[in-house]
């Protein structure tokens, strides 16, 4: 029995994906012996609606000077964050003067803040992983390498003053000390300031059985109910939502200090939709568990059968998400020859836990395999558009979200 990280109600795991390594812990053979594993088990709190990991590795084990995720590797995401920044400047800041102050946590290589920097808006990135933060700094983006929490927020206010906007993408769901984060936002944000952050949406995960959104970094999967509850305890109000296609289905939450902005009808409508989906009920997660097990069985059977037929299968995109899939399903180098990835720091290393070699994209192009297992399924539009030659050569895609299929 554990306590919910948000409301302290007792929670129990409803499923476990078994021993799992650090999702972004790509490694070399000399590191295999000391590889770290933890049990990837998940629970759901019926009181406040928060979906969460039972245990999470320490933050320093995940976010450090050798962090393997560089946001700028996708052109689609670069455009996505340009649009996000434009939206904030046009619709929330009101102008682009240097008087405005924007803070982003988990700013990584500066993929979003570069747009504010270009527009001359005062900004601060908070990015603890030093290697990616350094890339941002080299682009002229003000970045400090710290973990955000309430203490850091107080230090920022003392030095820089309060902010007009607090932004985050794919990081709020990473942070177990969530109340300290919200307390920090409370201190940091001007009375009329705005909070805008986005993360993978629990509703999409349940609807698509995209269980690969569950890995060490994602200590939470949010819904409107859980976000309203957690922020409500600190005097914030969820005033709008903006569903996103990114990461296979995300939700952008817009929040303000209580009573400062009108609440959009969209919030009410989506809360009703969550009820319909059963997102607030424990039994939904038991069905989800059955769907995960079915997906695992079918994917394994398909890969074993292709191996028996002597077909070559290569993975496409050494994503953090794929660490859950490969470890849970038991996808080892005898089933998938290598994984192609464009991120230099991942190349020449092996996938966490299952030790499939990660090779540069050129290896994929050099001799197309018969099948490509699409681990980066969330980038499928971008990838399909550029891989026509693979198709023309007779190549087929294996996908597993929402169901296992050969296309
Ligand atoms: N925002 C980028 C994006 O969407 O592409 C990067 C997302 S990446 C998955 C999460 C980032 O959050 C990492 O770069 C990590 O170092 C950073 N991070 C983790 N905990 C943090 C904290 N407490 N404060 C600020 N950043 C944090
Ligand atoms: P993500 O799903 O967490 O954004 O990670 C995507 C990974 O896939 C990242 O390591 C880069 C890689 N990738 C490719 O190798 N080729 C591509 O065309 C794209 C879009 C991503």
TrEMBL record:
Pfam families: Methyltransf_13, Methyltransf_14, Methyltransf_23
Residues making up the signal peptide according to the UniProt record: none
Alphabetized CDD domains for the sequence: AdoMet_MTases
Segments forming domain C-methyltransferase: 246-402
Keyword Methyltransferase among record annotations: yes
InterPro entries, sorted: Methyltransf_Zn-bd_dom_put, MeTrfase_14
Domain of life: Bacteria
One function term, GO molecular function aspect: methyltransferase activity
GO biological process: methylation
Methyltransferase putative zinc binding domain boundaries: 4-63
Keywords for the protein's UniProt record, in alphabetical order: Methyltransferase, Transferase
Protein's name according to its UniProt entry: Class I SAM-dependent methyltransferase
Protein species of origin: Geomonas oryzisoli
